[in-house]
Amino acid sequence: MTKLIGLTGGIATGKSTVSKLLATKLPIVDADKIAWQVEGPGQPTTQKIVAHFGQQAVLADGRLNRPWLGQLVFNDAQALQALTAITRLPIQYAMFEAIVAANQQQPDAIILDVPLLFESGWQHVCDQVLVVTASPAVVLQRLMARNHLSQQAAQARIDSQMPLAQKVARADVVIDNGANIDKTKAAVLKWLKTITK
Questions:
Q1: 36-56 pLDDT tens trace
Q2: Domains of the chain (ranges plus CATH)?
Q3: Where does the DPCK domain start and stop, copy by copy?
């Protein structure tokens, strides 16, 4: 029987790197990719976001103005709550559709790559949860470099999420994705051997 494996971590811990490693053996249902589809130009969810936040929430081509929204919601808990209320159900529905589609292959497991796995309750449908970690200093540097953020802006984004220590405490498996990618690969391969036939 196919297992559902949750994959999460804090922002900039390198969860995407681990997801890519897992994708060599197992299908991935990526919540971020699904969100981009659900929140695409002209989609009902995008229209609801515009209705709530105003026209500045989209770019001229109809795509979400993600930098603007990101700055807004990472500095305003009520705005984040409103955005989540608009997007959660459409994304969850699309994810369930993707799980059903992936299960047609009858894999040993399906990876649910969900940044806010615990916050959105996905751990309840998972047989196991993998949490990707990195040190606070590494996370801060990665986020600043990746998103071109100041230290203060990067720290605000980190602080807006569930503390990584809480995610680690709830994990079945913890994968350290600090500075050494070879150790990360070894940990992922070791875990894969416990799941795949």
A1: 999 999 999 999 999 999 999
A2: 1-27+108-197 (3.40.50.300), 34-104 (no CATH)
A3: 4-197
Alpha-carbon gap, residue 190 to 197, rounded angstroms:
13
Binding residues for ATP: 12-17
Residue pointed to by tokens 């796995």 = 117
Binding residues: 12-17
User: What are the DSSP E strand ranges found in 10-93?
Assistant: 28-30
Q: How many helices (H) and strands (E) does the chain have?
A: 9, 5
Q: Which residues fall within 8 angstroms of residue 149, CB to CB, at 6 or more apart? A: 143, 157
pTM for the predicted model, two decimal places: 0.89
Per the DSSP assignment, residues forming a β-bridge with 141 are none
Quick check: 14 and 184 in contact, CB under 8 A?
Answer: yes
Here the tokens at position 156 are 């605000």
> Apex CA 83: angle with CA 139 and CA 158, to 5°?
15
Which bin fits 106, alpha (ψ -120 to 50), beta or left (φ > 0)?
Answer: left
